[in-house]
Design a protein that fits this description.
Length: 86
Protein backbone atom coordinates (compact mmCIF):
# COMPACT_ATOMS: atom_id res chain seq x y z
CA UNK A 1 0.00 0.00 0.00
CA UNK A 2 2.60 2.60 1.04
CA UNK A 3 5.03 1.55 -1.70
CA UNK A 4 2.61 2.89 -4.33
CA UNK A 5 2.34 6.38 -2.74
CA UNK A 6 3.90 9.05 -4.95
CA UNK A 7 3.71 12.70 -3.94
CA UNK A 8 6.27 15.49 -3.88
CA UNK A 9 5.72 16.12 -0.14
CA UNK A 10 5.83 12.49 1.01
CA UNK A 11 9.02 10.47 1.50
CA UNK A 12 8.94 7.33 -0.67
CA UNK A 13 8.58 4.02 1.18
CA UNK A 14 10.59 1.31 -0.60
CA UNK A 15 9.02 -1.52 1.39
CA UNK A 16 7.38 -2.37 4.70
CA UNK A 17 8.64 -5.29 6.81
CA UNK A 18 5.96 -6.59 9.16
CA UNK A 19 6.92 -8.28 12.42
CA UNK A 20 4.63 -9.71 15.08
CA UNK A 21 4.00 -6.41 16.91
CA UNK A 22 5.60 -3.77 14.70
CA UNK A 23 6.37 -2.66 11.17
CA UNK A 24 9.67 -1.35 9.83
CA UNK A 25 9.50 1.06 6.89
CA UNK A 26 12.45 1.15 4.47
CA UNK A 27 12.87 4.72 3.20
CA UNK A 28 15.69 6.79 1.72
CA UNK A 29 18.09 8.36 4.20
CA UNK A 30 17.43 12.09 4.40
CA UNK A 31 20.06 14.54 5.64
CA UNK A 32 17.49 16.40 7.79
CA UNK A 33 13.79 16.32 8.59
CA UNK A 34 11.33 19.07 9.44
CA UNK A 35 12.05 18.90 13.17
CA UNK A 36 15.78 19.43 12.48
CA UNK A 37 14.98 22.55 10.44
CA UNK A 38 12.69 23.99 13.10
CA UNK A 39 15.08 23.14 15.95
CA UNK A 40 17.99 24.81 14.10
CA UNK A 41 16.14 28.12 13.88
CA UNK A 42 17.38 30.53 16.52
CA UNK A 43 14.60 33.01 15.82
CA UNK A 44 10.90 32.62 15.22
CA UNK A 45 10.03 31.36 11.76
CA UNK A 46 8.64 34.01 9.45
CA UNK A 47 4.91 33.70 8.78
CA UNK A 48 5.50 33.01 5.07
CA UNK A 49 7.79 30.06 5.93
CA UNK A 50 5.19 28.62 8.30
CA UNK A 51 2.48 28.98 5.64
CA UNK A 52 4.66 27.20 3.07
CA UNK A 53 5.49 24.34 5.46
CA UNK A 54 1.83 23.94 6.41
CA UNK A 55 0.74 23.90 2.73
CA UNK A 56 3.30 21.19 2.01
CA UNK A 57 2.27 19.14 5.05
CA UNK A 58 -1.46 19.45 4.36
CA UNK A 59 -1.01 18.73 0.65
CA UNK A 60 0.75 15.46 1.45
CA UNK A 61 -1.83 14.57 4.09
CA UNK A 62 -4.72 15.31 1.70
CA UNK A 63 -3.07 13.07 -0.91
CA UNK A 64 -2.85 10.21 1.61
CA UNK A 65 -6.48 10.64 2.65
CA UNK A 66 -7.67 10.77 -0.97
CA UNK A 67 -5.94 7.42 -1.49
CA UNK A 68 -7.58 5.78 1.53
CA UNK A 69 -4.58 6.07 3.87
CA UNK A 70 -4.88 7.67 7.32
CA UNK A 71 -1.82 9.04 9.12
CA UNK A 72 -1.74 9.08 12.89
CA UNK A 73 1.03 10.39 15.15
CA UNK A 74 1.40 8.94 18.63
CA UNK A 75 4.20 10.38 20.72
CA UNK A 76 7.31 10.51 18.56
CA UNK A 77 6.33 7.60 16.30
CA UNK A 78 3.92 7.71 13.39
CA UNK A 79 1.43 4.99 12.46
CA UNK A 80 -0.35 4.44 9.18
CA UNK A 81 -3.59 2.53 8.71
CA UNK A 82 -6.08 1.83 5.94
CA UNK A 83 -9.20 4.02 5.94
CA UNK A 84 -12.45 2.09 5.90
CA UNK A 85 -14.53 2.87 2.85
CA UNK A 86 -18.26 3.40 3.38
Amino acid sequence: MLESVSHENIVHVHCAVWQSTSVQLVMPVLPVDLSDVVDACEALLHESVIKTLMRMLLSGLAYLHSNGIAHRVRGTSAGVRQLSHR
